[in-house]
Amino acid sequence: MLRVARHFSWVAAGRWNLTARKRTTVLGNRNRMMARAFGSESLFGGLPIGILSDSYKAGHFTQYPKATEASAYGEFRRGYNKDKEDTRCVFYGIRYIVETFLHKKWTKQEVDNIAKFYDTHKAPFNTRYPWPEDLFYSIVEECDGYFPIKLEALPEGTCVNSHVPVFQITAEGKYTGLVTFFETLLCQVWYPTTVATLSRRCRQIVEDAFDRSVEEEKNFLIPSRLHDFGFRGCTCAEQSVIGGCAHLLNFEGSDTMSAAYYAQFVLNGGKPVASSIP
Prior knowledge:
Layout lengths: L1 E7 L12 H18 L4 H4 L22 E8 L12 E2 L3 H9 L5 H13 L12 H10 L7 E4 L5 E2 L6 E6 L10 H4 L3 H24 L23 H11 L9 H11 L11
Antiparallel strand pairs: 1-2, 2-6, 3-5, 4-6
Helix pairs in contact: 7-8, 8-9
């Protein structure tokens, strides 16, 4: 479980019926028009980043105290599978989040679309949902469209014990109220970290078994002893890349070509990382 702590020093278009061809066509045309208007043609790259958070985060700017600087950090509360003796985990996955989402430049059109959403995203008693409208427009006008926080994190693949901070966010001036707006996105390091940690534990089991039962000259087989066929069990293609790359920190055997391709050409300068058997 990942916890984010805060410190102050002073964010359905319609049901698809695949058997009702005519209705589906109408809904599809309408949804495509809406997608072009609201920038959601591509799920991962098109959703405005200002809604990639929990709803209650949008109202934090009204609740946090005034400050000149604010910081928050993320830590894992416990070891893998609630292990109390060995709380080590392999921290992994934050680079993908940063490069895919946080590096994205905001536009005025996106903030306009966000405004339309928040204006209809009802709070209790049908009141208007609070959101940092002025700050979001300021990001476009004053920050060249980039979210004004500083993010510091441990290197990918670092082995740490629970309760050791793995990332820290800092915001300054009028943007201190947004310091935890991206907590929701950043907490998604939990999944790849969990995969990398389980994979590393499996690697240790394999290595210990080889020490007991295999001649030393056969140790070159260790990296291929746990093979990844996880793509078919993923919720989406993006998950196959994130989880598949986490596995490749410890083993080279993988049939998840999406992860093998991403690891080779995006993360490793074109040098192959994974292998498989035809």
